[in-house]
């Protein structure tokens, strides 16, 4: 006998992180301004098509904090990503989605010290699984782990 799938809940911070990836991607690919992009996200509501998943509204303030933070701190964030990449890779080789994921996560690792690194990495690896293949998802995990070990002193 097969067990019924458990109900899952996607929290507001997860939704903000997902939204930040979409916003950064939109800004990069569409050359859309920061303010227009953030304004577009004030009315975002995802449809819940899976009856066993409760999707909470995104935390718009946190989304804005991430996107503004990445934009403001990109000159600190990008070198961290570049140093953490395998020697065969550079930041210029990354596709826009992968780069948006790494930038958002690196912002949180560097500038959100109250959020445990394990939470940040887990959330962004899960988000990467939605958009990227297994190899790229593994890269996200490895790069973020290296950035965290270089910049955070967590036991």
Order of helices and strands: EHHEHHHH
Distance between the termini: 43 Å
The CATH superfamily appears as NusB-like
Which architecture does the CATH hierarchy give at level 2? Orthogonal Bundle
| Overall 3D shape | globular
Helix content range: 55-70%
Q: What percentage of amino acids are in beta strands?
A: under 5%
Instruction: Tell me the radius of gyration.
Output: 16 Å
Number of helical stretches of at least 4 residues? 6
Point out poorly predicted stretches. 4-8, 44-55
Structural class: mainly alpha
Q: Please, how many domains?
A: 1
The name CATH uses for the topology is N-utilizing Substance Protein B Homolog, Chain A
For the biggest sheet, the summary is: 2 strands, parallel
Q: Strand order, biggest sheet?
A: 1-2
Average per-residue pLDDT, rounded, comes to 83
CATH class: Mainly Alpha
How many strand segments?
Answer: 2
């Amino acid at each position: 006998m097969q067990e019924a799938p458990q109900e899952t809940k996607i929290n507001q911070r997860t939704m903000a992180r997902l939204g930040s990836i979409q916003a950064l991607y939109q800004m990069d690919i569409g050359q859309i301004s920061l303010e227009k992009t953030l304004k577009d996200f004030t009315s975002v509501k995802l449809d819940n098509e899976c009856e066993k998943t409760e999707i909470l509204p995104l935390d718009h303030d946190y989304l804005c904090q991430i996107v503004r933070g990445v934009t403001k701190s990109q000159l600190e964030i990008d070198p961290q990503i570049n140093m953490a990449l395998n020697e065969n890779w550079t930041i210029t080789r990354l596709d826009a989605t992968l780069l948006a994921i790494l930038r958002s996560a690196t912002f949180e690792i560097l500038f959100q010290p109250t959020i445990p690194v394990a939470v940040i990495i887990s959330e962004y690896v899960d988000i990467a699984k939605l958009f990227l293949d297994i190899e790229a998802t593994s890269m996200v995990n490895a790069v973020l782990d290296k950035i965290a070990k270089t910049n955070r002193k967590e036991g």
